[in-house]
Amino acid sequence: MMRQISGQHLVIETAEDTFATTPWAKALAADPALSAVYGEFYAQLNSPMFKSLPYFLKKRGFKSPSDVNDCNWQYWKGTSNNLFADLSTNPAMANDFHAAMQCHSKYNLTPWPEVYPTSTVVSALKPDRALVVDIGGSKGHDLEKFRLCHPDIPDGSLILQDLPDVVKDVQVDPAISVQAYDFFTPQPVKGARIYFMHNVLHDWPDDSAITILKNVASAMEKGYSKLLIHESLISRVNPLARVTVSDITMMACLAAKERTEIEWGEVIRNSGLRIVRIWRPPQSVESVIEVELD
Ligand SMILES: C[S@@+](CC[C@H](N)C(=O)[O-])C[C@H]1O[C@@H](n2cnc3c(N)ncnc32)[C@H](O)[C@@H]1O
């Protein structure tokens, strides 16, 4: 085993039967979320899901799937549940899934407050209003990034929303309050300064994405609230491999996809919203689409 992983440069062989760690190996030992990703997440979820994909696509005449309840996930698992319904009945798999979200956020990405100038929103906060509502925020890692950039914000001014089983035991900083919420129902937090969604809309086909967005729009205050959509925009020519991998992953588990700038524009417009600006610094794979009420 050690010869194999040193051949892949994951540890360094310094002499016969003697190995030095690399930063990657050290992180794997130090971070249980990272070892969950490289262990169970890949073994039980990601890899088997991709094994069945070619057979599913062949069976469906190589058409892009668009029904989250009738895609490769159900074909592979022999279930009628979609991915998120399955996670809610399988705590071990849910733990590995959210570990993967946490690690993607922690190790792969430019923190979103470095993509979007968050200081502009903090300075214009109205009293008694939520500052940031992270919709579908998993374990709160994106709000934690915001808090680290703005350590003086009041307790409870950041709101983490996700499905009840995801947030029930979550441990967060006092700046963050936790709310069980299904984003297919009306948004309960009205007139927040920022509604934030990271890698949420890429999980859903257009009709569902529009339903989710309309629920956000109905809670926004015109001229004050902003929606920040933190996602990859897939280029129509020479797309990045990291984005095409994510595109195929969304197809394999949710009949969804990464969107081009034109496709994002259509979904946002059809939800009663408009794009103010797309923030895409060269160092960041994912962009922030700044959106307001139309
Ligand atoms: C791809 S993950 C992204 C998580 C997090 N925003 C991040 O970027 O790490 C999608 C999130 O949407 C949540 N989710 C799925 N269906 C939901 C629903 N109906 N209502 C609220 N959250 C939901 C999942 O539990 C999950 O945390």
Automatic annotation (TrEMBL):
Q: Which GO terms describe its biological process?
A: methylation
O-methyltransferase C-terminal domain sequence ranges: 69-273
SUPFAM superfamilies found in the cross-reference section: S-adenosyl-L-methionine-dependent methyltransferases
Report the GO molecular function annotations. Answer: O-methyltransferase activity
Coiled-coil spans are: none
Mind giving the lineage of the organism this protein is from? Eukaryota, Fungi, Dikarya, Ascomycota, Pezizomycotina
Query: Which keywords does the record carry?
Result: Methyltransferase, S-adenosyl-L-methionine, Transferase
Q: What is the protein named?
A: O-methyltransferase C-terminal domain-containing protein
